[in-house]
Amino acid sequence: MLSALSDRSRELGPARLAEQDGNWRSGMDEDYVYWLVLDCPGKSVNTIGRDVLTELSRHIDHIVDQKPAAVVIRSGKPAGFAAGADINQFKDASTGDIRGMLKEGHLVLDRLADLNCKTIAIVHGHCLGGGLELALACDMRIAVSDATLGFPEVMLGLHPGLGGTYRSTMIADPVEAMTMMLTGKSMRAKKAKSIGLVDAVVEERHVASAVTAALRGELGSKSGGIKSQAFGFKPARSLAARQMRKKTAEKAPKSTYPAPYKLIDLWEEHGGSPRSMQEAELQSFAELIESETSRNLVRVFFLREKMRGLRTGKSGVKHVHVIGAGAMGGEIAAWAAKQGFRVTLGDVALKPMGKAIKSAARMLEKVLKDPIKVRDALDRLMPDVDNLGVSRADIVIEAVPEKLDLKRRIYADVEPRLKEGAILATNTSALPLPDLAEGLADPSRFVGLHFFNPVSRMQLIEIVSHDKVSDETRDMATNFAVELSRLPAPVASAPGFLVNRALLPYMAEALIMVDEGIPKERIDARAEAFGMPMGPVELNDQVGLDVALDVATSLRERLGGSFPETPAWLRQMVEKGQLGRKSGEGLYEYDEKSKPKKRPVDALKDDSKDDPNLTDRLILPMLNAIVASMREGVITDEEIIDGAMIFGTGFAPFRGGPLHYARKRGVDDIVAKLDALKEKHGARFTPDAGWDLLRN
């Protein structure tokens, strides 16, 4: 009922009652305004594919014949205007096919831009990538207040390819438009209006009035103004381009992420001529689509889609109860409330509860950026010292410290109070689920939901099974994870599951290197140069040396000699309270903004410590642990493994995932390198028998 009312509340003009014609519906109103509604059949969101543009061209033929007073283009989807280009069309297409599609697309949007009548795009919800490029080809853009606009192409190793590079910098503040394209970040409607990207922001109920005002010339289309004129001159663009390159280099090296640099070059050289920039855009996009980085980032896009596709239906979860108001429990509860669930948060003490609610407010303010939405989310998050929410919850998530006896005591109290159909989940990162499930009356309703810290930024949730969990419980947990806007990775209960099993050897080897006297800044720099988001020394501090020590100790107990020993001084640091970032001192010292005080790598003069094998010493143990997990059956789907490592650890996305990297580099080469490292550094580098799985 609500969804039907929502659909009826959108102003679609006479196109509301028109029959579907492919991806479009159309109709002419009494003011001779041609309404054209994009509504891709069988999809929850619109995407801009070849078929959409081909059909648009036919509608333009009709518009030219009909000579309407104006054309209004908008979406029939509740989710938004369009989510961008249809990436599936790039998957198996040749470079020649892609070039042809782009040229055809440019011709269609140029025809739209050249129509004699006024063209108005009305955007709501998501208006991204190719969808925004379609809107930019219109004379005016009216944004509903909930709209977000952006160019996410850089996330695929690309830049806009349907005219977005030159239309956005002509219409809006050029520097703001370039920043949107360089970062891939979306912009809310009001901000988009302030930079000239849209002409008006209205509530949905005022859309029809806004169209009338536009027809009367009362809104008035704006260009980029004085700034656009100033950046019409190359010296001004060159000055800005130098700053853009410098800022981009802080986040993405040119050697591995060429797209932003090509975009800057494109604008600097051709920004004064739309026609020249259009031709250069086509050439630049075609070169990028052929790059290894783009192919791998497109692969990552499909890995994400595959993980989302593990969902089998709706979870049925409406009420979530979280036990434990520590850092993890508090974030899990806040994130669930942000996603629209009713949440109760239980703890035995009031102090951590108060701290958790304050932290939740800060996180929600940062993520939602809307006081009303923050208020609504906090209204859904209820402190529950007496754990009364247990009996009403559809899922109860335990997130208390990693102590087996403590968790079992909680389960003994909680399980008898669960309502029928509810499941019990643990956020354990290391404890075996069969051990945790001992004593449960119905272990089939018990599952692992391993979130990663910080929950608000880490996209992965490991769905941890054990031999007694039911398929229904596992499916419910998987569906719930997707409803949390997170990516599920199904794993079997095993030491460290997948991600920690792979990540800990990386972190542990870094500690051994520090013990050998290798400068910690050099260790981190090599890992970051490989593509890791953070070096392993800093990561140890970020996780907390106490936590890293506990997890490493637990894994060593379960894995035996295959896991490296932790240097004795690490335990001494933990005993002294030097825990890393959270204590202000660890492997690094930290400034007042909690940033590590690092020496510049160029200032490290001791070349005797510059091990040429340093990167392999860090990365190959990670790969070795992954193939061991495959061999043991913890997880066997290579694509899900690659996705889990990218979204759970930040493993260099431009490499397409660890197993993709291993196959490209060559299994024999990696095994030979592990053997050489074993000879020099010890048995921890022994190649796992699981490498044979990748040879088949």
TrEMBL record:
Coiled coil: none
3-hydroxyacyl-CoA dehydrogenase C-terminal domain sequence ranges: 496-590
CDD domains: crotonase-like
Keyword NAD: yes
A single GO molecular function term of this UniProt record: long-chain (3S)-3-hydroxyacyl-CoA dehydrogenase (NAD+) activity
Feature: compositional bias, Basic and acidic residues: 590-610
UniProt keyword terms in alphabetical order: Fatty acid metabolism, Lipid degradation, Lipid metabolism, Lyase, Multifunctional enzyme, NAD, Oxidoreductase
Reaction equation(s) it catalyzes: a (3S)-3-hydroxyacyl-CoA + NAD(+) = a 3-oxoacyl-CoA + NADH + H(+)
Record-linked Pfam families: 3HCDH, 3HCDH_N, ECH_1
InterPro entries (UniProt xref): 3-OHacyl-CoA_DH_CS, 3-OHacyl-CoA_DH_NAD-bd, 3HC_DH_C, 6-PGluconate_DH-like_C_sf, ClpP/crotonase-like_dom_sf, Enoyl-CoA_hyd/isom_CS, Enoyl-CoA_hydra/iso, FA_oxidation_alpha_subunit
Biological or metabolic pathway of the protein: Lipid metabolism; fatty acid beta-oxidation
Disordered, as annotated region: 585-610
Transmembrane segments: none
SUPFAM superfamilies: 6-phosphogluconate dehydrogenase C-terminal domain-like, ClpP/crotonase, NAD(P)-binding Rossmann-fold domains
EC numbers on record: 4.2.1.17
Domain spans labelled 3-hydroxyacyl-CoA dehydrogenase NAD binding: 319-491
Broad class of enzyme this protein falls into: lyase
Highest taxon above the source species: Bacteria
One annotated GO biological process: fatty acid beta-oxidation
Family classification: Belongs to the enoyl-CoA hydratase/isomerase family. In the N-terminal section; belongs to the enoyl-CoA hydratase/isomerase family.
Protein name: enoyl-CoA hydratase
